[in-house]
Structures are given as C-alpha cells and as structure tokens.
Amino acid sequence: MAEKKPITGLTLKLIHRDSIEPGNLTDIEKLHKLIDRSKLRALHLFSTVTNQPDGFNHHPLLKYESGNYVVQIGVGTPPPSDKYYLILDTGSDLVWLQCGGCDECFPQTQPMYNPHDSSTYQMIPCNHPLCDPYPCDDGHCNYEQAYSKDVYARGILSKDGFVFVDDVNHNVTFLDGVIFGCGYQNHGFEFAANPNNNIVGVFGLGPGHRSFTSQFDFQRRFSYCLADWQFGPPQKTSKLVFGDDALLPISGRVQTTPIVATSARFYYLKLKDMTVGEKRIGFAPGTFDRKPDNSGGFIIDSGTSISFFVKSVYDVVRQAILDYMKPYNLSIIDGSKYKLDLCFKRPEGFGKFPSILLHFQGSEYPEQEAELTIDPFGVFFIGDKDPYFCLGILPTPGPNQINILGAKQQVNNRFLFDGTNNTLSFIPEVCELS
C-alpha cells in the first residue's frame, strides 16, 4: 500500500514520448516527424492565443500535436497495477485522462481508468471554486478543455488519488485529492491515429488556477532540465520537480527574468535582444512584445520541439548565422531534405559552431539582463552519418506572429518556474547527470 503523507515536494521522471512509441525510423524520418509535430504545435499555440483559424484542416492526419514529454501516473485506490502516460503540457492547465465508459474515445493499449473501481473517487460539486465557469449537471461539475476549434476533451471534473513512482529510488508517493478531468468525449487528438497508443491524456502545467502546481503545497513551483538530444529521444531521462524539491544549485550564476503577467495560459517572457556568436544583433525595443491583438510575444514551451521566430526576426537571425559562417567558406545545401531552412555541408572535423545568447529583462531592474545561452547542440541539428548541419530554428509557420522557445533550444539548462513570484530562473546544467 502506498504511503499517504503531506506532500510539499515531488520528483517525477520526465520521459521523451518517442521512447514509448517504438519504431524503426531513420534519423531523417525522426527529424521529419519532429519538424511536422513542431509546426502543428506552433499553429495550435497561435490559434489559441489569438482565436484565429489555425490551418489544421491542411493536415488531416496530424490535426493536433500536444507535446514531446510524458509523465507516468497511477490513479485510484487501491493503487492500480496499470500506470498511465500523460502528455506534459505547459500550455494548458487541466490534468485529464480517458475514463471507462467514454462516448468518444481514442485507442489506448492499457485498460481505461474506471472511477467505479476506486474507493477515493469523487465528482466535483457545482459550488467548488475550480468549477467556475464550467457548466453543471445533476449537481456535479462538467468541463471542456479546448485545444483548438476541433480538438477538445469533455467530461466530469473529478477528484481521486494519484500514484507517482520514482524509478531511481523506487519510492512510491500517493497524492490524495488530485482534481482532474475524467474524460468521456475526447476528440481530435493526434495519438488517436495510433492503434498501439500509450498516451491517455494531458498533464497540464500552465499558469492557471487549475494547474497541478496550484492544487497542493508546491508554492506553484516546478523545474525541469531537458537532456540533450538530436534526432530521437535522449539516452538519459530528465526530471520534473515540484515544490520544495524544485531547487537550483547554490553554485554558479542563477539568472532570473519575470514571467509576463497575462490572462493567457502560456508562459510569456520579456526578451530584449539576441547575440549570435560574439555579435549582438540589436533588435529594436518592443520587437518581442505582445501586441494588442494578442499576436507577437515570446513564449517558452517544452511541448514544441524546436524554436520558431516570426519571419522578420528569423531573417535577421538567419543572416547573422550566415555572417558567422562566411569566413569558413562552407557550402550551403538544400535544407528541404531535412524539412529545415538553413543547412551547410560539414567538412570533416569542423566544429566552429556559434552559440546564441538570449537577453531577457532582469527580474529586479528593467535595465538588468538575464542571459540564457543556447549551446551549439541546441542551435543546430548536426548529422552523424550524413556530413551536414542545419539551423534548428524555423520561421513561424503560416501567417502566425508568435515567437516560441522550443525544447531543443532549452537543453542543458535547468529552468525553475515560480508562479507565486511570476519569475523564471535558469542556470546551465548537464541535464543527463542531474
């Protein structure tokens, strides 16, 4: 029996979703899948913040891509033998999973969670503060979590115990009273196309009041450190840490920038400028600010595999990369083979890759800066068997005007999200050793 105890900290294994979706893909095929997933995620984010059409109808087989990483949980009392994978999503608040007896379901390999089998399951009543503004039916609270026009999860807002297993130390933690969505109508999710799907729902970590971090004594704090990867999942797993366990190293220089206060369900940051190699670009003030129509702005999102910049910004960064590479007389090659834009032929032994430095507003004084370094393995995809390297950043797809710092450009940094103080802190770290 899992031990029940007050929880002020929690550490979970953060699993790259490709590691639970086995396949015999080549590196190029893995890269194509990653790029397609990222473009659709960017379309989704833009449509969510602006309420504009997102163009998903142009991608009937991949209507919605929801992220790169999953966490594993058990639900109910007694603790079940079945463990479920939920997609980590910093762009939505609600935790939800499919429930037995659902009217509209996607396939999953494991038996569905059945609330009738759990002695601790409860439906959330209409007068609960987390019910507002959800509708009510027969005294219980219904929910709808919309991800785009044709992608949504609907069901009953519920409460039950969640079981978390630490695979390293084999500790079992039972967290009582997690509020989540018991999904009975789940429509438009891309993992529905996989008959061997292992993903059963979403683990929302957005800044809203229904987020997992807002429910318990976690001080609305969580941190993660993403291990380096190129084409497939990293060899080492990463960790997702909450509350008292979410600490940054006392050695080294911790950088802190404010999370811009908005009503949106994403984490907006105040980016001021960039440096490529040793050359600071000098973007005009306000370039990365959010516009009155909710376009623009700069979002950090672990669910998007690579970064996207609006075209005017991307073109400047692209030219700065070209200027950096000019003294080395490298051949530019067609990037369409890799579904990327700027690619070079890599001579044997070549290693002169630039880093990119992001200059954010400091947390205490506007004139201060917090600097995040994207190392060369975060900036580029570097071929192993094939002698090439490509810029791992693309212009935002379609008419979209939003800048996204994706997962590849976050590797080997530890990030601490502090929802109480509305700050993001970070420090370089070799994540596979953490």
UniProtKB/TrEMBL annotation:
<protein>
    <submittedName>
        <fullName>Peptidase A1</fullName>
    </submittedName>
</protein>
<dbReference type="InterPro" id="IPR051708">
    <property type="entry name" value="Plant_Aspart_Prot_A1"/>
</dbReference>
<keyword id="KW-0325">Glycoprotein</keyword>
<dbReference type="InterPro" id="IPR032861">
    <property type="entry name" value="TAXi_N"/>
</dbReference>
<keyword id="KW-0645">Protease</keyword>
<dbReference type="InterPro" id="IPR021109">
    <property type="entry name" value="Peptidase_aspartic_dom_sf"/>
</dbReference>
<dbReference type="InterPro" id="IPR032799">
    <property type="entry name" value="TAXi_C"/>
</dbReference>
<dbReference type="GO" id="GO:0006508">
    <property type="term" value="P:proteolysis"/>
</dbReference>
<dbReference type="InterPro" id="IPR034161">
    <property type="entry name" value="Pepsin-like_plant"/>
</dbReference>
<dbReference type="Pfam" id="PF14541">
    <property type="entry name" value="TAXi_C"/>
</dbReference>
<keyword id="KW-0064">Aspartyl protease</keyword>
<comment type="similarity">
    <text>Belongs to the peptidase A1 family.</text>
</comment>
<feature type="domain" description="Peptidase A1">
    <location>
        <begin position="69"/>
        <end position="427"/>
    </location>
</feature>
<dbReference type="GO" id="GO:0004190">
    <property type="term" value="F:aspartic-type endopeptidase activity"/>
</dbReference>
<dbReference type="GO" id="GO:0005576">
    <property type="term" value="C:extracellular region"/>
</dbReference>
<dbReference type="Pfam" id="PF14543">
    <property type="entry name" value="TAXi_N"/>
</dbReference>
<dbReference type="InterPro" id="IPR033121">
    <property type="entry name" value="PEPTIDASE_A1"/>
</dbReference>
<keyword id="KW-0378">Hydrolase</keyword>
